């Protein structure tokens, strides 16, 4: 009981501090007064919109930015629900940070804006994951195709290597980082996105929409090859339509007045592309995702396929092609099911109504 009340008190304190940072037009008092303040904040579209607008400001992201400091301190708290709130903004922070740092490095101006606030949040998440892994790599077991599977009957073992298990390295051991170096930038953000993917089932739809929108912008491919698997164009074909979808879900898309609101084309090494594809794959195929999220992911995966085809990245080409094929099959199956349901309803005779008997008093 004491730990529960301590968690609620801590969450209310963090929300009250956040309320003092945001403009006075946004009221968070109802969230602070709820039984689970942190969860209420996570599931509030209005609060996400307010924080997104503040982070999207051209002056946001510096080391003195109070909102970045709030996100940093909140993530360092031991409350898991408060950490989920911070993780829900990882797609937005990653998208804004990468777009700004790439554009500033390509421009000739020397007085680029400070992004130390964004970097502090990303480094805090990276440091927590580094400590959690304890210097060990992330391994996966690879099945031996020379051996019979669980579905073979009878299961006759072949040869003397029947007990051999192949192990693949999914992620190498993480090295501690105290600064966002240009050579380590993609790896640090990739780890942050991987942490987001671990809890993606608890992330709100508007956060997933941000990731899909930025992934489309990061790929930056508008060539016709992104639709080569589509006989008939059935996906949303412009980023403006994705923004319209976002507005209908609570006007959560960043204001178009921001110069980097849609992100920009950036380098996509595999250490960054891999977690992005995992998240996009969940958004595309997750059964509980809304149609808006699936449509945005459908656009993103096709843009990523076009980018991988131009960059000649075999593992990315294979992954994106597989996701596109799965998306097409899922949509075709949904259309067929809807057509069958409509035809069955049309062929089902309606029951004849019984004649009404009116009692007339004499």
UniProtKB/TrEMBL annotation:
Pfam families: Hyccin (PF09790)
GO biological process, one term: phosphatidylinositol phosphate biosynthetic process
Bias (Low complexity): 339-350
Subcellular location: Cell membrane; Cytoplasm, Cytosol
Region (Disordered): 339-362
Main location: membrane
InterPro entries associated with the record: Hyccin
Keywords noted in UniProt: Cell membrane, Cytoplasm, Membrane
GO cellular component: cytosol; plasma membrane
Family assignment from sequence similarity: Belongs to the Hyccin family.
Protein name per Swiss-Prot or TrEMBL: Hyccin
